[in-house]
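Translate structure to sequence.
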């Protein structure tokens, strides 16, 4: 699997990342272990989690798996912080919370450090310099190797990145996360340019359009799909409208012409866009991951990419 540099840093990651948001709920620990083994065997390195995924279970499972047959140094572990759904306010970017949450993540992950620590959300009530100082402290202590941002607006990321670049010696933000796919191209308008200006890269999540671009919903909602699960249906439903159906048909047309599955077209389009370091896939099952790994080598011809660009250029959702 191709390895890519993240921003202007010494951090390199696999261009396809393994997302763990379902671990501990829709994906059992046994199957998570099978996924992680298959991912590493295929050359994957970047594993993405967060302190709020399944109430911390995602990190706990990953921690136990890293204590097993896998070597910690073979993985690039990325986690996130900032959400506080059970606290008196929904987000907290204070030094107090961020550093405490990092320590808690390290305990759950059973490791001394994370490779990439990301500010998951922007906290308007905390001065940006306070949040960034906490991230500087994490790097200085060795508990985080690199820092980035999660799902921020372009102006929020630019505010943080510019502060860090204003004085020599500060730790730069090397990445910013964004939902990015043929069904959601919002990052094209501002976030990708903002990341480029800050010499950072985008880590694209949900490159398969929450599973819809695999074409599994082409003829309805399969009973074993996320869209059929009560807790996940609201996540999928926004991409089951008429516009999405037209995009899926464009993807299927391209896939038929290339002789590959639709998910190969969707994944390659997002993963190989300029300024994208990695695309995070979140398979629930091992067969889903194996299908993704099986098309890792697919790269779209320029004319197909251009046609898809034209077919999906729409306003923000």
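Result:
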């Amino acid at each position: 699997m191709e390895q890519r540099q993240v921003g202007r840093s010494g951090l390199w990651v696999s261009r396809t990342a393994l997302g763990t948001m379902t671990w501990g709920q829709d994906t059992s620990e046994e199957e998570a272990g099978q996924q992680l083994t298959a991912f590493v065997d295929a050359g994957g390195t970047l594993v993405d989690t967060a302190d709020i995924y399944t109430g911390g279970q995602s990190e706990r499972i990953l921690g136990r798996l890293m204590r097993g047959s896998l070597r910690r140094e073979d993985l690039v572990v990325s986690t996130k912080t900032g959400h506080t759904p059970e606290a008196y306010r929904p987000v907290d970017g204070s030094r107090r919370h961020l550093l405490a949450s990092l320590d808690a993540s390290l305990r759950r992950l059973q490791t001394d450090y994370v490779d990439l620590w990301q500010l998951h959300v922007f906290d308007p009530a905390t001065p940006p310099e306070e949040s960034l100082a906490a991230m500087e402290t994490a790097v200085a202590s060795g508990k985080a190797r690199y820092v980035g941002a999660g799902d921020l607006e372009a102006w929020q990321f630019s505010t943080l990145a510019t502060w860090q670049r204003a004085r020599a010696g500060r730790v730069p933000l090397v990445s910013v996360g964004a939902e990015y796919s043929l069904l959601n191209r919002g990052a094209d308008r501002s976030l990708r340019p903002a990341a480029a200006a800050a010499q950072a890269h985008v880590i694209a999540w949900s490159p398969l359009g929450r599973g819809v671009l695999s074409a599994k919903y082409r003829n309805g909602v399969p009973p074993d799909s996320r869209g059929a699960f009560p807790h996940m249906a609201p996540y999928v439903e926004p991409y089951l409208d008429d516009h999405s159906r037209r995009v899926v048909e464009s993807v299927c047309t391209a896939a038929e012409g290339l002789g590959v599955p639709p998910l190969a077209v969707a994944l390659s389009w997002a993963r190989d866009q300029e300024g994208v370091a990695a695309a995070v896939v979140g398979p629930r099952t091992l067969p889903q991951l194996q299908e993704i790994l099986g098309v890792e080598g697919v790269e779209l011809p320029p004319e197909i990419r251009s046609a898809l660009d034209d077919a999906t250029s729409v306003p923000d959702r």
